[in-house]
Amino acid sequence: MAATEEIRGVGHSVKRVEDARFIRGRGQYFDDITLPGMLHLEFLRSPFAHARIKSIDASRAQELPGVVAVVTGELLAQHNLAWMPTLSGDTQAVLATDKVRFQGQEVAGVVAETAYIAKDAIELIDVDYEPLPAITSPQQALAKGAPVIRDEKEGQTDNHIYHWEAGDKEATDKAFAEADRVVELDTFYPRCHPAPLECCGCVADVNPATGKATIYMTSQAPHAHRTLFALVAGLPEQKIRIISPDLGGGFGNKVPIYPGYVVATAASLLIGRPVKWVEDRTGNLISTGFARDYHMHGELALKGEKITGLRVRLLSDNGAFFSDAQPTRCKAGLFHIVTGSYDIPAAHVETEGAYTNKAPGGVAYRCSFRVTEASYLIERLVQTAAYEIGADPAEFRRSNFIKPEQFPYSSATGFEYDSGDYGAAMDLALEKLGYEELRREQAEARKEGKLIGIGLASFTEVVGAGHGAEYQIAGLRMNDGAELRIHPTGKAVLKLSVKSQGQGHETTFAQIVAEELGLQPEDIEVQEGDTDNTPYGLGTYASRSTPVSGAATAMVSRRIRSKAKKIAAHLLEASEDDLEWEDGRFSVKGAPEKSTTIQDIAFAAYTNVPEGMEDGLEGVYYYDPPNMTYPFGTYAVVVEIDRGTGAWKVRRVVAVDDCGVRINPMIVEGQIMGGLTEGFGIAAMQLIDFDEDGNCIGANFMDYLLPTAWETPTFELGETVTPSPHHPIGAKGVGESATVGSPAAFVNAVVDALAHAGIRNLEMPVTSDKVWAALQEANLAE
Ligand code: CDP
Question: Would you list the DSSP string of 542-602?
Fold first, then answer.
């Protein structure tokens, strides 16, 4: 019987149940959905980065057989839909009306019987543009006399968006005034893109008879999207059903609302037929949520080997509309975690945001709202400081780490770190790497003219946003719901507000219920993604599923267990106080033969409850996290540089992660390997760049490079476990740790190979031409 088998709950590497359908090609993605009478939407995109629209003539397109409608901004304006609110409280054009503001912006949509007809019709739309000067950097944008990009906004007379500060300026200035030494670094975290394998898209189906809008869409946050749709389109919220089917990756790209979703829904509403929009790869890379694009200046104040202050100035390139995904109050996301793993008594961060003629988005690409930029800056800065004072980079980190006994730790910028043991994670990484021996090998190799570099990054993350009093997106508190129903035969359905994009939720969340209720995970079905059938919550991004929804799942399970205990007492004719719980059964203390299983209790819940008790065994729990969780780790990378070409090769990557209690160790390792691959891609090859006219370079996978199995290094993983004290099962998020932590380790490794010759910085992506230039500067080229 179930209760005597080992329960495969938390800590078991249960195989991913979702893979049975994915590897057989039986996943159900939005593009697999075909509805009767369905039409297809395609967009005409702007060829200019900045131009005034003098006129749009769609008459030739409209006449093409098979074209049902041409949607322009002017038409949308008649329905008050030409502009929509962004996640950052700005407005964004759905379709351009007055001006185009970035290359690739949606100008008009064609709705036709087939996607081919729609594409042909796009070419028949005549737009008369008056080109304007394009602005492609925030420095240009904020220069005196720069053309104003958002001239439609009342009171907007320049390209400045926001000024934001965190920390204590006075205390930081004092630390710098009293410092023995100040170390500085200017660096740029370039624009990159989440580039999920499946691009964005939707099928919008507004039923003319009922008025109900069912929208199958690529959404990481279906509930938040339903509310935003209600606010944008003015539809009553109960008449909107968002269904987010299987997703082919998301990584933050599927958090914002894009014009495609809005136009498809508006077209379906006006035409009375379902409308499908499928974004192509170029559309995805040039117009949907980019990541990073942060110009960073960091300074460390030092007294001997001790860091006494950190000062940061940021310039953020937000593109044409400020639509960053960020908790409302924090304009620069959670960048102020920039003190990282270090006990820095004073810190101050200042950020300016600017509009440019580039796509909007600012998404948290596998990152907790700008944590990646912060982690990169501090880990590069600490490495630079170690070289400047002649310290070993590992030892310099160790002497500045927050110590285990300092937790909970209040950072100078206002975070309360929950738990950590940074020294232990670094020790394990160094031991696995054979750090001392490698340093000796590096020194010997240099004598023979060979360049080896060892890069470290001891990152701290902040994930699980976040406490409702402090963190909100578009005014919505960032809680998540879990609803659990135990059926009479002891099988269960768990419904969640979050939405997996491939992270294995159907497996791991069942394991949490298994752990708490003693059911086997295969007896629990996890459902996500349908707003009519799941409880409310803000969705999956920023590694918040485990910290928030995982906690909600544990709490609803415990709520059910306490009702189960009352039923058990009734069945065993014992007092609740005399019962003990173990492995899925309640038994009478001291009389283990008197026991009842969770399956028996489930049956009794519908057939034989104590007098006065309501039937059933189900519940719902909305979890508002008391704090965020702070996963951490140390990544170590070893590279070799070819002095003849500047090409660099990764020899080893050791990654030690601490995400508290691991629910499914195999899935956690998969998450880390995926994240390391993306981190390597960002460090080595990925860049969304623009020419001086604002043309996007990096608009396809020939120019925007994703690492394949060929280039990707082998990863050696290790773990330490420091539970989160406030999470019900001690788990912290992990999905983004490796993307956040690893770029600095890769760059630090390449810089480390050249540091003895005075090189301190290389900008990402670290391509061989940049290394070649550095080799020449350092007189190391061959
Ligand atoms: O929000 P998202 O699902 O992207 O990230 P996450 O909460 O870090 O979880 C990623 C995957 O790793 C999920 O399947 C989690 O349940 C699993 N995980 C785990 O098994 N143990 C942890 N301590 C953290 C995550």
Answer: TT-IIIIIIHHHHHHHHHHHHHHHHHHHHHHTS-GGGEEEETTEEEETTEEEEEEEHHHHH
Q: What is the pLDDT of residues 574-625, one digit of tens each?
A: 999 999 999 899 999 999 999 999 999 999 999 999 999 999 999 999 999 9
Ligand 1 atom nearest 664 alpha carbon: 20
Under DSSP, is residue 225 helix (H, G, I), strand (E, B) or coil? helix
Under-70 pLDDT residues of the chain: 1-4
* Residue 4: per-residue pLDDT: 63
Per-residue pLDDT reduced to its tens digit, 505-526: 999 999 999 999 999 999 999 9
Distance (Å) from CA 609 to ligand 1 centroid: 37
Backbone φ/ψ region at 293: left (φ over 0), alpha (ψ -120 to 50), beta: left
539: phi > 0 → left, psi -120 to 50 → alpha, else beta; which? Answer: left
Q: Which of 462, 508, 739 to mutate to test the pocket of ligand 1 (most atoms within 8 A of CB)?
A: 508
Cis peptide before 743 (omega within 30 of 0): no
* Res 2: pLDDT: 42
Residues in the chain: 782
Identify the residue whose C-alpha is closest to ligand 1 atom 11.
503
* Pocket flag, ligand 1, residue 668 (CB < 6 Å): yes
What are the catalytic residues?
220, 366-367, 736
CA of 727 to the centre of ligand 1 (A): 13
Q: Find the 503 Cα to ligand 1 centroid distance in Å.
A: 7
Q: Which atom of ligand 1 is nearest to the CA of 736?
A: 8
Question: Which of 581, 621, 632 has the alpha carbon at shortest distance from 740?
Answer: 632
Residue of 461, 548, 549, 663 to mutate, ligand 1, most atoms within 8 A of C-beta: 663
The pLDDT value given to residue 90? 95
Read out DSSP for 16-58?
A: PTTHHHHTTT----GGG---TT-EEEEEEE-SSSSEEEEEEE-
Distance CA 759, CA 768 (A): 15
Does the CB atom of residue 739 touch ligand 1 within 6 A? no
List, as one string, the DSSP characters of 189-222.
E--B----SS--EEEEEE-TTT--EEEEE--S-H
Q: What is the pLDDT of residue 3?
A: 45
d(CA 305, CA 307): 7
**Closest atom of ligand 1 to CA, residue 542:** 1
pLDDT of residue 5: 80
Residue 672: its H or E element: helix 665-684
Q: Which atom of ligand 1 is nearest to the CA of 665?
A: 20
d(CA 28, ligand 1 centre) in Å = 22
Question: Closest Cα partner for 274 from 220, 198, 227, 213?
Answer: 213
